[in-house]
């Protein structure tokens, strides 16, 4: 591994902020099996995996997959176990959280932003803002579909924070649509999930969307 490549255990630790199960990456990801599969793919498409430019590609891809799918090795719910009393009873919104994930249909990336908000419960307890970004990463770094990603983030927040309401909006471009198939670069997919008060109150939902859109 070159000096420029991240140590994957540290990547996982940064991803979930203390929610890992302590096992080294090599024990949870079969890197050699991925390498062998990548070699077979290269041969199948007519390439020579032993030429200079590709000789180390299977190893690089294996380690990249281990990093990109690090969310499979963590429990996202543990990201939100820490909360503290703030006496806040209005919307808390984190906008423009970068999303990098892989479509499970073609294993091609989709990327964009997530906007994540909630209204604290009656106890006024809140979680750290960085925890919301880590939660997005924990679900994004796995084979995904955007619709499920959006719902998983919202459901975990609702279950772990016991808030009055949750709203999640995800806006992404999918390379499986941009570089293949219909080939429509720039087309974006927007998904949303609302829980609790945001589901019941049009006014609350409109307020949150106004904050997200910057109106």
Automatic annotation (TrEMBL):
The protein's annotated catalytic reaction(s) are: GTP + H2O = 7,8-dihydroneopterin 3'-triphosphate + formate + H(+)
Give EC number(s), comma-separated: 3.5.4.16
GO MF, one annotated term: GTP cyclohydrolase I activity
Give the pathway annotation: Cofactor biosynthesis; 7,8-dihydroneopterin triphosphate biosynthesis; 7,8-dihydroneopterin triphosphate from GTP: step 1/1
Binding locations of Zn(2+):
103, 106, 176
GO annotations of cellular component type: cytoplasm
Q: Which GO terms describe its biological process?
A: one-carbon metabolic process; tetrahydrobiopterin biosynthetic process; tetrahydrofolate biosynthetic process
Asked whether the UniProt record includes GTP-binding among its keywords, one would answer yes
Pfam families tied to this protein: GTP_cyclohydroI
Q: Where is the GTP cyclohydrolase I domain?
A: 34-212
Q: Which UniProt keywords apply?
A: GTP-binding, Hydrolase, Metal-binding, Nucleotide-binding, One-carbon metabolism, Zinc
Q: How does it assemble?
A: Homopolymer.
Family of this protein: Belongs to the GTP cyclohydrolase I family.
Q: How is this protein named in the record?
A: GTP cyclohydrolase 1
């Amino acid at each position: 591994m070159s000096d420029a490549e991240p140590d994957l255990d540290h990547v996982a630790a940064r991803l979930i902020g203390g929610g890992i199960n302590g096992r080294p990456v090599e024990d949870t990801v079969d890197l050699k099996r991925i390498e062998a599969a990548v070699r077979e793919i290269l041969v199948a498409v007519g390439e020579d995996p032993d030429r200079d430019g590709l000789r180390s590609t299977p190893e690089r891809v294996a380690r990249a997959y281990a990093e990109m799918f690090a969310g499979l090795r963590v429990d996202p719910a543990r990201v939100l176990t820490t909360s503290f009393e703030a006496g806040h009873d209005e919307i808390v919104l984190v906008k423009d959280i970068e999303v990098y994930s892989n479509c499970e249909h073609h294993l091609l990336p989709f990327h964009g932003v997530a906007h994540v908000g909630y209204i604290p419960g009656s106890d006024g307890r809140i979680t750290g803002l960085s925890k919301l970004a880590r939660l997005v990463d924990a679900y994004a770094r796995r084979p995904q579909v955007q619709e499920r990603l959006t719902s998983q983030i919202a459901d975990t927040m609702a279950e772990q924070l016991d808030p009055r309401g949750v709203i999640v909006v995800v806006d992404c471009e999918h390379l499986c649509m941009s570089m293949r198939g219909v080939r429509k670069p720039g087309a974006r997919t927007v998904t949303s999930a609302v829980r609790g008060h945001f589901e019941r109150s049009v006014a609350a939902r409109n307020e949150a969307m106004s904050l997200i859109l910057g109106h």
